[in-house]
Write a structure and sequence with these properties.
single chain, 6-stranded antiparallel sheet, alpha+beta
């Protein structure tokens, strides 16, 4: 008798919290804006295969052209006077076939104590078909984001250096396609500054 009574009671308690929820109609959400909360996450993607294959430990490896991404201050300790790096990374290729990250970077040492560096990264999100809330096609575009960096690295001692990099960021995710409420869109632009420090031990050659 207890079991027969308990089961309906528990079922009613489980359903009760959901029965009072209001149903959202297309008219209520038409014209609403639901932006992605993260900003230019492509800047966090490891651009080179060397550091990417080592678990993204680029901040602790020897200086190379890709140091502009990990720590600009490393460039002052680069062994060669000039270096250039180029990489192309298919991104999430097993899910989407046309997303990729292209990266170009380089540096040049000056007077053996400092170095200037640069980098350019381009992130393509492939071809996107835009639709309204009812599923009607409103346009097509290939969203893309890119960033350009220029930096300077200076030795402060035989084991320590500092660096400063300036970055311009452009994020064009809609290509001007209007939102569902008719508002036009445009590319987002921003500037950023990176400050880095680098220490290299004389005894072991390890860096931090």
């Amino acid at each position: 008798m207890i079991k027969k009574t308990l089961i309906p009671v528990l079922t009613a308690m489980a359903i009760a919290p959901f029965s009072g929820r209001a149903q959202v109609t297309t008219q209520q959400i038409a014209g609403s804006i639901n932006p992605i909360t993260t900003s230019v996450p492509f800047l966090l993607i490891a651009p080179d295969s060397r550091q990417g294959g080592m678990g993204e430990v680029g901040a602790a490896t020897q200086p190379d052209p890709s140091s502009m991404h990990w720590n600009v201050s490393k460039l002052a300790f680069a062994e060669k006077s000039t270096g250039i790096g180029i990489s192309y990374t298919p991104w999430l290729r097993q899910l989407v076939p046309d997303i990729s990250l292209s990266y170009l970077s380089g540096y040049h040492k000056i007077k053996k104590i400092g170095a200037i560096g640069f980098s350019m990264r381009y992130f393509s999100l492939g071809n996107i078909t835009f639709t309204d809330i009812l599923g009607n096609t409103t346009g097509q575009f290939k969203p893309n984001e890119f960033a350009v960096d220029v930096g300077w690295s200076q030795k402060l001692s035989e084991t320590f250096s500092a660096g400063l990099a300036f970055r311009y960021i452009n994020s064009n995710l809609t290509g001007g396609v209007a939102l569902s409420n008719g508002q036009p869109t445009k590319a987002g632009q921003s500037f950023a500054v990176d400050v880095g420090f680098y220490y290299k031990s004389k005894k072991t050659g390890n860096s931090r």
